[in-house]
Amino acid sequence: MKAVHFGAGNIGRGFVGLILHKAGYEIVFADVAAELIDTLAAADNYQVHEVGAQPHTWTVDNFRALNSASNEAGVIEEIATADMVTTAVGPNILKFVAPLIAKAIKARADNLPPLQVLACENALYATNNLRAEIAIAVDTETLAAKAIFANTAVDRIVPAQDSAAGLDVTVEDFFEWAIESGPFGDNVPEIADVHFVADLEPYIERKLFTVNTGHATLAYHGQLQGAKTLADAMAITDVAAEVDAVLAETSAMLIAKHGFDAADHASYVSTCIRRFSNPHLPDTPERVGRSPLRKLSRDERFISPAVELASSGTQPSALLRAVGAALQFDVAEDPESVRMLELRSSLSAEDFVSQVMGLSVGEVLYADAVETVKAQS
Ligand SMILES: NC(=O)c1ccc[n+]([C@@H]2O[C@H](COP(=O)([O-])OP(=O)(O)OC[C@H]3O[C@@H](n4cnc5c(N)ncnc54)[C@H](O)[C@@H]3O)[C@@H](O)[C@H]2O)c1
Ligand SMILES: O=P(O)(O)OC[C@@H](O)[C@@H](O)[C@H](O)[C@H](O)CO
């Protein structure tokens, strides 16, 4: 079995690559970072160090690496004959990898089973978004015959890596990968570490609105308090209280919407808090808070649950305070942070809320969001 994986970064090598390798796949990493790809192409293996209560080191081998910027044809050829193509490039990058996948689907031999396409990004239904980009270049009949699209929820904290580590990746010991089973019909892939589920929505929403909402809240409030790592931020009483408050709000929303058992959900939340506090994981507010414009958008970790709560008559006060902290995320190396600060000074609070958060005048939460932006001006 062969998988082509776009994005040989942290989650690519430390999660998708590892799990597919353990399931027996040969992996072809495709990335635009020339140095990374050259190093991977020259290596026989790399190691994944799981740190936490149950440390373990895995060796990943049986991979190749191709530069998807300078060798598009090579990547297309690999995808055309692969069983699976996965991505971990960032939700906003999917439109750049889609044309290569589209060309590969068109070139795929009729006698091969459909290509399995999975976007492993932190976003609701990222595979649907990738499919829409691919569909621009492939007719409906070919797409239906030659490809299967499955949404996924991926969960493992992989911090930015020390440059001295080379290809090796340090990751937390926890992981969870849920993939919707329906699109595969009777041919669900055999991947021991994956949880195939009939209905992904509860899993993806629980993950994004617990792990990622809590994580981002910790990063933004923690950075304002001067914390250099996420574990340090968790040790600041006021910051930890904001994380608890935000997760109490999203827990209420998730339990009401998906019918989770309250005790099971409380245990899920406690596990997240423990994961955020992992002292062996050198994670930073800059990484976890990255791309604040994406994180403040309508379908993302703050505004989506806040709208859901406000629609049912609950004031999402902690989520709005987290939004207020996010609006102050000032990291010169992060283009979205720079752009967000420019937009905050060039747009009215009302226009910022419509353009960045996707809320319309008169819509639930609109007025509170405008007040939150004004409070930071
Ligand atoms: N790191 C985590 O803890 C974590 C956990 C779950 C999900 N994710 C999600 O996984 C995705 C990747 O995150 P990451 O932390 O691994 O980031 P990363 O920056 O470490 O890796 C992204 C990789 O994508 C590559 N890339 C960028 N543009 C590309 C293109 N056009 N074609 C091919 N490759 C391209 C980059 O060069 C980089 O190597 C994001 O959507 C993120 O939300 C991350
Ligand atoms: O990747 P982002 O920017 O959407 O979010 C930053 C972190 O919260 C995220 O990468 C987590 O570490 C990950 O989602 C844990 O599964």
Automatic annotation (TrEMBL):
SUPFAM superfamilies documented for this protein: 6-phosphogluconate dehydrogenase C-terminal domain-like, NAD(P)-binding Rossmann-fold domains
Pfam families named in the record: Mannitol_dh (PF01232), Mannitol_dh_C (PF08125)
Keywords from the UniProt entry: NAD, Oxidoreductase
Domain of life: Bacteria
Domain Mannitol dehydrogenase N-terminal as annotated: residue spans: 1-191
Mannitol dehydrogenase C-terminal domain boundaries: 199-340
Catalytic activity as recorded in UniProt: D-mannitol 1-phosphate + NAD(+) = beta-D-fructose 6-phosphate + NADH + H(+)
UniProt keyword Oxidoreductase, yes or no: yes
InterPro entries xrefs: 6-PGluconate_DH-like_C_sf, 6PGD_dom2, Mannitol_1_phos_5_DH, Mannitol_DH, Mannitol_DH_C, Mannitol_DH_N, NAD(P)-bd_dom_sf
Binding-site list for NAD(+): 3-14
Keyword NAD set for record: yes
EC number: 1.1.1.17
PANTHER family for this protein: ALTRONATE OXIDOREDUCTASE-RELATED, MANNITOL-1-PHOSPHATE 5-DEHYDROGENASE
Similarity section: Belongs to the mannitol dehydrogenase family.
NCBIfam families registered for this protein in UniProt: PRK02318.2-5
Protein name: Mannitol-1-phosphate 5-dehydrogenase
Organism: Rhodoglobus aureus
Gene name of the encoded protein: mtlD
